[in-house]
Amino acid sequence: MTLAGCSDDGGSGDDGSSDDGSGDDGSMDDGSDDGSGDTSELEIVHWWTAGGEQDAFNALLDGFREANPDVEVVDNPAPGGAGSAIDAVIQNRVIDGNPPSTFQIWPGQALTPYTNEDLLEDIGDSVWDDEMRDAYLDGVVELSQPAGDLVAVPINIHRLNNLFYNVSVVEDAGVDPSTIDSPQGLLDALETIDAETDATPLAHQTQSPWSSLQLWENVFIGQQSVDDYQTLLDGDVEGLEDEVRSALELLADYLEYIPEDAGSITWDQGNDGLIAGDAAFLHQGDWAAGQYEGASDFEFSDDWDMVPFPGTSGVYHSVIDSFVFPTNNPSPEATEQFLNYAGTVDAQERFNPIKGSIPPRTDVPMDEFGDFLTRQFEDFQNSDSQPPTIAHGTGVAPAIHSALDETFANFNGNLDVDAAYEGIRDAF
Ligand code: GAL
């Protein structure tokens, strides 16, 4: 629960050139493929195609190509917010022994189906040298080794508990977001926006269940505490029945104030409404801020701003992305080159300012991160806790996660608190 505050200094060990020196194949055989041997074609599967995320990914690839001109990158996205479409693709390919070179995955619990079956290479020596280990936040290193071996390279830290808003819309309604001090207070603000303006109060999507699941997580923490949330993650849902129901009831109330077409839009389409001044608030991870950075005439502080989700101000509810080295790898050398690069200062300095996240290395210069991310970084450093999330896979095993997705898909349609409570209890 403590990613921040650990780890130290850092020298500058960066540059991004990686190299590593291990070039001599031999080791990584792992009984793989088909005799075609290693190629320098690197296939990457990820879901960063929405809301400016593609730009961040391209910036990462540009840096990688500069450092490794010999490798040809095959960019093979599986679009869908919060990885909603990637599992189906990746799990089958990995199980069938036909994985891509690397793929995007949350570190922590999300890795366990793969580590349980030994489907990820131990990259503790080939990638995680001492320089890199020293530079990373200790908590992030821990998430990269859920079964002991280091198997992932985290590249960012997003914050989930953000309440973004369009400045002029809330001003028109006479709402001051900085004074909303509880999840219930947010409902009052949504009612005021609805009464005083033509804007949609909350730019929320329900096409896919993850945004409601993550909002419920934040309502729960805002109403209760991180300790109760941790108890929930540990599986004691029945001991917290009233609290779980209370968060569901308030979520159902919020869902009265979302776009009419919420069921057919993606998260970034909802956010387009906020940018256009057609919506007031958005609860979303700070990948939404990456989208604002890419929008024209939409400036931080003048046009948009954010407060921590009401009731969660000392919390940095963290969402982390990483890349891994699947066994049976079609391109062992190129994969190692990419993972080495992803762990550098250069990679994280290019990627994160555009993505709307802060780096998991402690030695990345923050000059290019802009005012918003500089403030997020300070919040991170001053935060009391950085719990993992459910909707973004670090905090619960994938089987629990997918049962909860199903529960919240139903809840989006029927707002049935009893059924959702039972779904959550049974999921855990
Ligand atoms: C998260 C992921 C973020 C962002 C978001 C929206 O799960 O960690 O990087 O892509 O989904 O799709």
From TrEMBL:
Cross-referenced Gene3D superfamilies: Periplasmic binding protein-like II
Region ranges (Disordered): 1-39
InterPro entries named in the record: SBP
Biased composition (Acidic residues): 16-36
Listed name of the protein: Sugar ABC transporter substrate-binding protein
